[in-house]
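User: Please predict the structure of the protein below. I'd like the answer in structure-token form so I can feed it into my own downstream comparison script.

Assistant: Understood. Taking the following sequence of 297 residues as input:
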Amino acid sequence: MVVVYRGTVESIARDLDENGPRLQRAYEETLGLGYARTLQSAANRLLVPEAFFDDPKAFNALTASTELRTESTSPSRFHVALIVKAKNGGLASKIRSAPAFYVSHGSFSHSGTSRVTNRIAASYLHEFNHFAYYALQGVPIEAFAPFINPERVTLDTLPDFIMQREMAGHSHEEVLELARSNVLGALIHDLYEKATRVLDSCILGYIGISTALEWRHQPREMLVFEGVKGRYLFPSPLGDPFRVEDDRELIQQFIQWQQFVRPNIMGVRAENRDFNRLIELTGKCKFSRVPLPELLK
């Protein structure tokens, strides 16, 4: 079966087992037979019992080197543990990785999926769909994201970032370039989550769970900041960041994100030098996926 679950939540295992043939058809018809087989092979190899956590403290021990903290009130999560072996111009040129999940009855109650269904398996399937992109993308966008946004700028802190750079004497063009480099992390996270929601919508319908994507096909809104040295314009997370009408075509394109993601993020202004350089470097990155116990040896 494409969907693999080796965790301890019995209701997830039972629901997935009962709907196994429907889910198999869902992934084969949504991804195509080739991608579905690749995903099935990766899931069987990588999703060992040690990759599944239902205790926040144990999951925090795994993510201690990152800023990710999981509490009893946290939603379900998919995490990629990374070991960077070498660096090339600021971006890893060799990465070993392993997938891990935090899913429990408590995490489900705090997940967005709980607002559309009472079936905890749907929450796991959302995290499994994050895994699907991780397994199928050449260099997963989940691994790419930590190497951008070096100053950890968010859309909320962007106005302060712009003001500080203007006061430091940077020109409007320099501030715009710096800001766009640093806000990419937030925009890529938005793409990643929304692409996963589209995959959810395609898959969950096969097992009788309907999900609404209110933002789909809505105009992408822009954020406008008025600085001392001029106006700054950025795409916002509001609206649809994708320029693809068909959901399955969108999923296919997101699997090949290095080719398609740039115009989706930056719109008509896609000339950011740092982003272009990172796209080039990810094409040279040697990325491997191993089961979690092997990574932690």
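That's the full token string. The mean pLDDT is 86.
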